[in-house]
Amino acid sequence: MSKPVFSIQWHITTKCEQRCKHCYLFNSNLADQEIAGERLIDANKLFAIADDCVESCRKLNATPRVSLTGGNPFRHAHFWELLDYLKKLGIKVHVMGNPFGITDTVAKTLIAKGVSKFQLSLDGLESTHDLMRQKGSYKSTEDACRILSRNGVNVAIMSTVSRMNMHEIPELAKKVVDMGARVFSFARFCSVDGDVTKLPTPSEYRSFMERMWSVFKKLEGKGTTFALKDHLWNLYLYEIGEFHPEDTRGIIVDGCGVGISHLTVLADGNVYACRRFNSLVGKVPEQSLYDIFLGDQINRYREIERMEKCSTCDLLPYCRGCMAVSYSVTGRWEAADPQCWR
Fold this sequence. Notes:
This protein is an alpha/beta fold. The chain has helices spanning 29-35, 43-59, 79-89, 104-112, 126-132, 137-150, 169-179, 202-218, 232-239, 289-293, 296-299, 323-330, and strands spanning 5-11, 63-69, 92-96, 115-121, 154-161, 183-188, 225-226, 262-265, 270-272, 280-283.
């Protein structure tokens, strides 16, 4: 039996060519600090955190998987050295970055250094995506996808869904298939400025998922896997008879991984239970990831009885909604998922 995977999303820098309208890091103090020139984690500390990742996962009897991101991780002075070090440690590495600067040489180097997947973002068709990120970004992403793919790097395309772009995501899925991406998925928008009007209503979101399910079924077998990332997929598939939950005796087996299967490390070493809301639980390398994961600060996110709606739902072990969306609307992660239609 294989070990469970423990994921670390590691924001090694906040430096970035884009200033996306929905970016949770750009709208944080951390981004302002780095823009102002504050020195963050150096190479030795990066390597120490990587070592701790291996040791912590050994203690947890889990297989480590690291997703290097930013900002644009390429802009960290020690990005390539860190890739070499992670490969030496035998850690499976994904990169979540920008399309800028992706060439055939870069793609071949990523493969040589052990990168198995590169995630890019598309947030709608060209004009909408460029409005949300920057002019020319859509074309650069399309080009980067093709370059990475032809050099053997598996490309995942991620979309952030809001009222601004949800009507375009079905057509975007078809274009992503044509680009040759191996994976396509979407996550829900979390307001970073208190404007919740961009969030679909529960009925709107269910209708959107219904449409996307139809699109995914039509595109099956064309080379792209449609990852059902949103936890509400299990609710939708349960309602249409495509998902048959088993009795897990209360054990969380799917859905939100907060406090269960992942941590986020930010560029200053602060560790968050979830990257998309204020959920500080520790700091590396001063503390080990093992101690943080078993510590008191993260335990609150495992207290199911605190979740106002999910705690009494029979799909709890497979969902738990999205704490980040709840937080973005109410300021409280325990609040009911504002887009759950049940």
